Amino acid sequence: MLMRDDSHAISPGASALSVGIDSFYRSLSWIGSRWPSADPARYGIHVVQDVAYGLDSPMHRLDVWVPSKFPAPRPSLLYLHGGGFRILSKETHWIMALSFARRGYVVFNANYRLAPQHPFPAPLQDACLAYQWVVQNAHRYGADVQRLVLAGESAGANLATALTVAACFERKEPYARNVFDTTIVPKALLPACGILQVSNPERFLDDPAIHPWVMNRIVSVSKAYLPDPKVEGADLASPLLVLESTACPVRPLPPCHAIVGADDPIRRDSLRLEKALSHRASPVEVRSYPRQGHAFHAFVWRAQAKAAWKDTFHFLDQNL
Predict the structure, then answer these.
(1) DSSP letter for each residue of 120-171
(2) CATH of segment(s) 7-319
(3) What pTM value is reported for the model?
(4) 120-136 pLDDT, tens per residue?
(5) Hey, is 277 helix, strand or coil?
């Protein structure tokens, strides 16, 4: 088993509520990792933990999940965890890495710095560093960087989408430019249940189905990640706005497959993503699952989660 205490991952500036939520999900994840079916060795998967990809910091670490039973070179996948940019870690998201590794993907499951102590652009800068590291080092793990998939849920979906923008659009921000200069464009983008615009969270106020407490959480997430909407490159904090703009990518955008629960309070961002990419004539699938909430696919034993994973792997099989 590979779960361990990773309490340093939560930002010291996080609220008491965030700490409580983080502790709850960390405990739930730890309990789940104790089941025999969660052991990666059972599936011939070797996990290399805490590989440094950037600065000498616990937040600049990733785990590499290598599915040894599949012949090299294997497709590669960079996974960026959710948690509202403020909580959770690669440890809490082992089930995502395991799910992809079982299908033959070498998974690079990355940590990044967290808000509010480290607001935008710090998490995206770290994601860009991880992207560069994967491009340069994937071959060491039998992974094919020419078949690189970007994936994440919630806040991680935001970061994965922003990375895709950085790889395809010629930007002036140094961290985005470094991604562009790798010349590697992802083969597929999987932004699940994404909060794809953090600016103007009040746009959700017209949805009577959103409980006031949930609305408060959405606002808190947005303000923690982007406290200064005028900071350089702020549109990359809301990559959906870039894709809805008239800006033209230098390189073709990769095929995109997004899953979202029909009862997810931020589902509209995924629907807007589908419209934006369709308008650009870029291949896109957005699948909505009835009676499902936010990040429902993490509960992999449930019927709708199984359907979502099946649809995701079907998309990947078609596009890689």
Answers:
(1) TTHHHHHHHHHHHHHHHHGGGGTEEEEEEEEEEETHHHHHHHHHHHHHHS--
(2) 3.40.50.1820
(3) 0.93
(4) 999 999 999 999 999 99
(5) helix
